[in-house]
Amino acid sequence: MAGEWIATVGNADQLKTLIQGPFLKGHREPRLAMVGRSNVGKSSLINSLIGTRLAQVSAEPGKTRLIHFYTWKEASRIIVDLPGYGYAKVSQADRKKWAELIQAYLRSDENLEVALLLVDSRHGPSPLDREAYDFLSSGGVPVQVVFTKLDGLKTQKERAQRRREADIVLKEMGVDPSSALWVSSRSGDRMNELVNLIRAPSMEGK
Ligand SMILES: Nc1nc2c(ncn2[C@@H]2O[C@H](COP(=O)(O)OP(=O)(O)OP(=O)(O)O)[C@@H](O)[C@H]2O)c(=O)[nH]1
Ligand SMILES: [Mg+2]
Fold first, then answer.
1. Separation of CA 176 and ligand 2 centre (Å)
2. How far, in Å, from the CA of 76 to the mean position of ligand 2?
3. Cβ of 42 below 6 Å from ligand 1
4. How does pLDDT run across 8-54, given as a tens digit for each residue?
5. Architecture of domain 3-204
6. Which of 76, 109, 188, 198 has its CA 20 to 30 A from that of 206?
7. SS3 state at 122
8. Would the pLDDT of 4 be above 70?
């Protein structure tokens, strides 16, 4: 088995009992958190990395409303599937709950290695993505930007154009554009670059 579900939490109090120091239910592997707007492809990317369909994927945005923890055995990591932001139909109260839950997670987890900030390659970083980036980096969390759904950019010309546009926004955000990865979990295109980066000694040592 390439990975398995460990736990699901829906409120901040449950997090405190679940995460004890560096441990999460007895597991002490470093954690990778998936952050990004609803429907950007977080759960799909998790399934592609782990190699099984553990995380629930849906065409309907706002599917992941809880925090799910999975083991990714091959890389000795725990992957954290966080609820997506920016779903228009979510009420103000739900948005607040989302922010509180994610903040509580980031505060309680001493073993968070990196947050993968997922951005839709067809649209580039949105104002909400920029907000998420600022929020993570101001909390001292290392962030890796990953553009998803690369298969949606059909031609080399379109890819180059989107990349030029995204690079401008990344620079404004203070992110080195050459550090960003462009992948497709659907076609598997360039997924190896992400896997190699996660498994690189520099990241393992963090
Ligand atoms: N073309 C394409 N579609 C993708 C890719 N990855 C995910 N999708 C589709 O995008 C939709 C949303 O995918 P999810 O993985 O559920 O997205 P999510 O970010 O987990 O969404 P929430 O849980 O709502 O936050 C689904 O219809 C997926 O099939 C990809 O690499 N290429
Ligand atoms: Mg999801």
1. 27
2. 22
3. yes
4. 998 888 888 888 888 888 899 999 999 999 899 999 999 999 998 88
5. 3-Layer(aba) Sandwich (3.40)
6. 188
7. coil
8. yes
